[in-house]
Amino acid sequence: MALPKAAPFSALPPDILDHIAFALALADPSGPPCPVLPLLCTSSHVHYHLSVPNNAHLYARIFRAKFDYRAPARRMCQEATYASALTNQLVHYSRALHNIRRGDIHSPSILHDFYRLFTLALENDGRNVHHLNWARYADFLHRYVLSRLWQDREESYGWPLESPENAFALWLYFFSLDHDKLSSQSEDEREHIMSLLRPYALYNFRYPPFLVPDNHVHLPLAGDPSDYQNHSAVTPHGYYPLYRDPTSVKHTVEHFGMHIAIAEPSIGLVAKLLYIAHYERWPVDIPDFIPCDRTEANELNLDGPTIADYDEFASRWAIQFPARGTWDWRDALNVEEGQRADSRTWRTDTKGESAAYDNDWERWRGCYDPWDVTRVKGPVYTFGSLSGMWGGQYLVPDVADYHVAMNSAEFLPVLEHPQMRASVTPLFFKLHEHHCVSPARPLPHWEVHDGDPFDEGVLNAYFPRGFPDAYVGLPGAGADVPRDRVLRLRKRGAVQEHVYETFVEGKENSHDEETCEICIEEREAERAARMEEVASDEDGSPTSVQWEDGHICTGNVPSVAAEDAGHEPVSEPENEDARVERIRREVQHVLGPQMDVEQLIEQVARQEDGSDDGASCCDADLASDGSTDISRTCSGILDIILTGETLHRHALAWGDFRIYGRVRAWDGLVVLVRTPIWHGPDLPRHDTFIFRGYLVGGPRGNLVGSWRHITGNVHSIPVEGPFVVSRIDERDAVDSEADAGAREGREGEEVGGAPEQQPAQDNGDGDGQV
User: Fold this and answer.
1) Roughly what angle, to the nearest 10 degrees, separates helices 110-122 and 164-176?
2) Are residues 670 and 245 in contact, defined by beta-carbon separation less than 8 angstroms?
3) Sorting pLDDT into bands at 50, 70 and 90, what band is 543?
4) Which helix (H) or strand (E) holds 55?
5) Residue 186 has what pLDDT?
6) What phi and psi values does residue 428 have, to the nearest 5 degrees?
7) Which residue in 257, 316, 368, 624 has its CB near the most CB atoms, within 10 A?
8) CA–CA separation, 285 vs 421, rounded Å?
9) What are all long-range contacts of 218-224, with beta carbons under 8 Å and residues at least 24 apart?
């Protein structure tokens, strides 16, 4: 008896072929879905059905099963979740991963491959990192840094190039590292890498870490870009400060089916992270003949660090590397957490490792052109991120070396292998974040004088002239914030108070939609726009309401009620309330008695998907370059100021300081002024420091940037050095009862009365200016 002839493979139903292809694609979770390729070669019929152009649904399903997809859905818009977008991205990622795995660090496609790896790293929730490891990207980037970071520097007089390839490579190198990999490096290898990173990390006059010069707080900038260059100082390295041409730092990438623009991430900023990460691997030098702990120091009546203080400093890393996440992290969430993770909504409590880099993504997406007044971006800073205890270090470069570098158009051999390494200083402080909530009035910024329009007060953290001495209301030396968690700042002799609410984790602020001026303005604008739309749809007439400069004004449409009465339209002046009421009556007349205009407005409003923490990407308006106009639920916060201090035990060891600062709204730049607290004329004087930097990786990441001294002229080029701090567990941020008692004797109940800030002089110890 003859056996029945087996059916050809190509005769299988399409859904069966899809299941087989899907199972093959997931046979190896890491890397591109390569096992599907042999299946495509079985027959023309199978190839046709399973090809990418003909089966986007299958490849979108594969993408969702292998890659992290929640971050782009959350950060972009609904189109990023379409099957065609996911399929296109699967193709792009597969090609880039294969190119990197081949290991050619001189590949002509390396910049485009870096684009893909960069977004893979920023979108990682636990799966993307497996594909990056499959491509052996850590080894690739390590070889790139050793072999290509200083390549072609003869084009710039020996100075290492600030190229897009180098910038993206160093950021990816940061994402590829962890503490174990750094610890496994030999001393020679670590020393070599530090020498390659050193120019980028130390010399801000050539490799600025900020997206826009820190001397500005009011952004976007006015005027022509050439005006700023004309007022900048000319150095052997070009203009200072450096205003970059937006077209030179803008990169266009096809991402999930859309062409988006992204700023070139600052090479000067990531070099600081990497340099300190390698630097802190060296053993801490503990001076001889110092007390073992504070008890012994008190017995000897000595101030300054003890061995225990150095042990505390050496026991933790300043740098926090990005968390890797886990493949099945979503399965561990409860129902409510899972719904938040799956929603296309901006939230502060979103689960998943990629959420830590949402602010960084928006900063890179929207902050490359400081003259663009139309650019709309999402949140570049999460409220409350800085509240808490921070610890790390800052590096003081050799002043003579810095002078040589700043004044040399060529990268001299002495700069390539300096005789002295930068000295390290521990950095500890506790910060409190305070918010001005509408309708309160924020504290004014630094008043720009006509004689110097480019000085917007960065040396005083953008606070008004005379702050803090001429103001009352801030907590004084050693004092905590008021018990009611509200700061009432007032200029001495003035009546007006500027009220700021102290951020408390889990506690809502006083925002009220009925009194918030932002909400009132948005509601009126929305109502006017909807009534305009309804009126235009019903009678086909031109718009009867326009929104101009925040005010409602009538257009050229005659009044419906006036026409029906046989009269000419009312032309005499009306106040705003009368105009709104008249337009409401006109629209109601058009709708008739069957529909109430207020019900119509509320019905449309309910169709919009809002949340307490953000706005749905479905409501975003997609611009031509893929940027989104994300309407977030209003928080009412108009301004953020920061206050802080050193804990008593840290003050005894490393110096006693108080801190005040502000956050630049345009890009989330944090500016902190650290001033010394005096305890007597016999104690050494510590200069005022200005710390400017960004939060990279959110509240659990790193605050990284550059410090400088107060100088007599904001246009002078100061000696600067890198700093990095990361969050310390709150349990370590509380002084003991004995320390708290010792703080009672520290002077002052207000910041007012701080010593006058004098221009620092170059004393050869890293102070002063160049």
Assistant:
1) 40
2) no
3) very low
4) none
5) 94
6) -135, 135
7) 368
8) 13
9) 218/445, 218/448, 218/456, 219/370, 219/664, 219/665, 219/666, 219/667, 220/369, 220/370, 220/371, 220/372, 220/373, 220/375, 220/666, 221/370, 221/371
Which element (helix H / strand E) includes 134?
Answer: helix 128-134
DSSP code per residue over 105-122: TT-TTHHHHHHHHHHHHH
Q: Which residue has the tokens 């190509």?
A: 10
Residue 70's contacts (CB-CB under 8 Å, 6 or more residues apart) are 125, 341, 342, 352, 354
Query: Comparing C-alpha atoms, which of 751, 675, 645 is closest to residue 432?
Result: 645
- Phi and psi at 569, nearest 5°, equal -60, 145
φ/ψ region of 191 (left if φ > 0, alpha if ψ in -120 to 50, else beta) reads alpha
How far are the Cα atoms of 148, 255, 358 from residue 119, in angstroms, in the given order?
22, 9, 12
As a whole number of angstroms, the distance between CA 478 and CA 743 comes to 6
- The DSSP output letter for 630 is -
Read out DSSP for 716-770? S-B-EEEEEEEEE-GGGGSPPHHHHHHHTTSS-SBSTTPPPP------SSS-SB-
Q: Which amino acid is at 284?
A: V
Helix (H, G, I), strand (E, B) or coil at 262: strand
| Token pair for 607 | 């169709």
Q: Hey, what are 638's tokens?
A: 């108009």
Q: Residue 433 pLDDT > 50, yes or no?
A: yes
**Alpha helix (H) ranges present in 592-713?**
597-606, 648-654
Residue type, 195: S
Is the pLDDT reported for residue 753 higher than 60?
no
Q: Which two tokens stand for residue 49?
A: 């059905």
Please work out, in degrees rounded to the nearest 5, the angle formed at the alpha carbon of residue 616 by the alpha carbons of 356 and 355.
5
Strand partners, 250: 263
Query: What is the rounded average pLDDT of the residues 140-158?
Result: 96
Per-residue pLDDT tens digits for 239-248: 888 888 899 9
> Which of 38-52, 225-239, 303-317 is most confident?
303-317
Measured at the alpha carbon of residue 628, what is the angle toward residues 622 and 632, in degrees to the nearest 5?
125
DSSP class per residue in 530-546: HHHHHHHHHH-PPPSEE
386, 638, 730, 741 from 735: Cα distances, Å: 19, 32, 11, 9
pLDDT in tens, 603-626: 444 333 333 333 333 333 334 344
Nearest by Cα to 548 from 583, 576, 585: 576
- C-alpha 436: how far from chain center: 21
487, β-bridge pairs: 500
Helix H segments across 302-343?
307-314, 335-342
How remote is the C-alpha of 144 from its chain's centroid?
26
Record the tokens describing residue 449, joined without a space: 């004088």
Question: Which backbone phi and psi does 63 adopt, to 5 degrees?
Answer: -60, -45
Tokens of 543: 């718009």
Within 242-306, residue ranges assigned H as helices are 246-249, 267-279, 294-299
C-alpha distances out from residue 555 to 523, 528, 559, 603, Å:
20, 12, 10, 26
> 490 has which bridge partners?
472
Cα–Cα distance between 360 and 441 in angstroms, integer?
Answer: 29
674 forms bridges with which residues in the sheet? 659, 689
Distance CA 329, CA 334 (A): 11
CA dist., res. 189 & res. 419, Å (int): 18
Spatial separation of the C-alpha atoms in residues 731 and 716, rounded to whole Å? 42
Q: Parallel, antiparallel, or unpaired: how do β-strands 423-437 and 498-502 relate?
A: antiparallel
Asked if pLDDT for residue 680 goes beyond 70, the answer is: no
CA 445 → CA 308, 456, 661, distances in Å? 42, 8, 12
d(CA 342, CA 120): 18
Cβ count within 10 A of residue 15:
8
Chain-centroid distance, C-alpha 529: 33
